[in-house]
Amino acid sequence: xxxxxxWSVIPQNIDVxxxxxxLTLRISAIALVFSIPIGIIAGLCRVSHNKILxxxxxxxxxxxxxxPLLVLIIWIFFALGKxxxxxxxxxxxxxxxxxxxxxxxxxxxxxxxAIPRGQMEAARSSGMTYIQAxxxxxxxQAFRKVLPPLxxxxxxxxxxxxxxxxxxxxxxxxxxxxxVATTFRALEVWTFIAVEYFLITFTLSQIIRYLEKKxxxxx
Length: 219
Known about the structure:
Layout: H1 9-12, H2 14-46, H3 51-66, H4 69-84, H5 88-113, H6 117-125, H7 130-160, H8 172-183, H9 186-218
Helix pairs in contact: 2-3, 2-5, 2-8, 3-5, 4-5, 5-7, 6-7, 7-9, 8-9
């Protein structure tokens, strides 16, 4: 009841908070780079006529989507990470990449299935192999459809990255926790961190809207 806000704690520790923000963006960007090929491969396997590939891909997607990200991060760091000798930074990236890859796979699958089947049939009838038809006909068209959802996935990835603080990755969230522990200014610190996350996600959402309008015009 007698709490008095002291916002001077923010400019006094702005360098620490910005370092945490940069690490958050770095982890999110690297995880997205890894999750895209994982998702593309899994997505292609989902629509493959090979039942084994389709089944394995479906198991990966359904299992990962059914496991909380926090549990996955802890398991990879303490179990798989010890076996592969991953530090907390790379364990965080591996967790986010595997988790996000499952959602990217569904985005890719939906994008491919949104292309009329006649496109594939026409390409095959012209003498193209299945791989050539996917590479030169289907995937270029699907790319335009999946680009906005992929950008949205990056926003989700940035917010999900706050969970990596549980394995001592000094991202924006952990920097905030440490700062609160030393200054006892929870209201000011967490409000500023919330504003940082909002500014990043809002800026990216505006870029996504621009891309959506651009590709709607082109279609």
